[in-house]
Specification:
single chain, alpha/beta, 5-stranded mixed β-sheet, 40% helix
Length: 353
């Protein structure tokens, strides 16, 4: 018999590099219906040195990646341990940790999330469920996105669940199947240009708003091959580094114009990605704070009810859902959907240390 209640910690680090999100969550399940309560939550920002390492790691040698993985596992383990001590968390069933994606090449049968080495369980002093993507890629899937099963189980009242992080991804039901895919880069590009202006990010999209639209750049961005590909499909930082940034950099225009044009591109691609333009759209992730982006999205989706939840869900939804993925793994229940990732079958993924 499985438990009806679980107390776990979900840990997530996204491609926008704004830090490590931790959420202590209590789950209850009754007649296959799940409910949750976030007990404690915190985001630990990366130091400048860690931000630079994680940005550059895509080009690291195998030896340097091995060392980075070891160092990051120590960092992550220490942060989780501090979180447990700070909030006096007891009776924790498991820590469910995503790690940090460095390389994501499902087309080559390869994905790497650092911070998932076995010694993390020793550092934390708790059972750890982690490394959720590798098995799916081995089964021929994209290894992403993994959040949609959580959207189905915990947020079924919304027609669409959209996350705006380093990349955007969406999930929805179609003919009793959960469909999900990455739409476009978001903060990986906007933050890159905000950094050039000496800022961590574009607060409320005010810099982007001040720029002008460059139609030629917009047309080139919209014509990128990825957008015409059928799902399942997913994006990694390689796409930004090798394709998107070189395309934008061809244009000798102000940074504000680049950011304005890219924001329009995100809004257009989001609208294009949704099969129906009506219903309720739940928006989470850091991009939901970008007022200019949200206005452009509403402009392109005039009949859609766009819902931005409270800060707890907005900022910690992915940590919450990785907590759920870990619980499902403990119960040996399906936590990855083939309809989403394109793998050979639905499966229960993750490694338990």
């Amino acid at each position: 018999m499985f438990n009806k209640n679980y107390k776990v910690i979900g840990v997530m680090s996204g491609t926008s590099l704004d830090g490590i999100d931790l959420a202590a969550v209590e789950f209850s399940v009754l007649d296959h219906k799940w409910s949750f309560k976030i007990l404690e939550k915190e985001t630990i920002s990366y130091t400048e040195d860690w931000v630079n390492q994680l940005k550059e790691a895509v080009a690291f040698s195998e030896e340097k990646l091995t060392q980075l993985n070891e160092n990051y596992t120590l960092l992550l383990g220490g942060i989780i341990k501090d979180f447990i001590n700070k909030f006096h968390l007891e009776d924790i069933d498991a820590v469910c940790s995503h790690g940090h994606t460095i390389l994501h090449q499902p087309q080559n049968g390869f994905t790497l999330q650092i911070g998932n080495l076995p010694n993390i369980a020793k550092i934390v002093g708790r059972k750890v469920v982690c490394d959720f993507r590798v098995q799916d890629v081995q089964l021929g899937g994209q290894g992403a996105p993994l959040v949609p099963i959580g959207d189905r189980i915990l947020f079924s009242e919304y027609d669409y669940c959209l996350n705006l992080g380093g990349f955007s991804n969406v999930s929805f039901e179609e003919k009793n199947n959960r469909i999900a895919f990455d739409i476009s880069p978001v903060n990986t590009v906007l933050n890159f240009y905000a950094n050039k202006l000496g800022l961590d990010y574009d607060n409320k999209g005010e810099i982007s708003r001040s720029g002008n639209l460059n139609s030629d750049l917009l047309n080139e961005l919209n014509a990128l091959e990825y957008y015409s590909k059928p799902f399942p499909k997913s994006l990694g930082f390689e796409f930004v580094k090798e394709i998107v940034l070189p395309l934008i950099e061809k244009y000798s225009i102000a940074i504000e114009d680049k950011m304005h044009t890219f924001t329009e591109h995100i809004a257009l691609q989001t609208a294009k990605a949704l099969p129906s333009k009506n219903g309720k759209l739940l928006v989470t992730g850091g991009g939901a704070y970008n007022t200019f982006l949200m206005e452009r999205m509403q402009f392109h989706l005039p009949t859609m009810k766009i819902i931005i939840p409270d800060a707890e869900i907005l900022e910690f939804k992915e940590a919450l859902i990785f907590a759920l993925l870990g619980v499902l793994k403990l119960r040996n229940e399906i936590n990855v959907l083939a309809s989403v990732t394109g793998s050979k079958q639905d499966h229960s993924t993750g490694i338990i240390y």
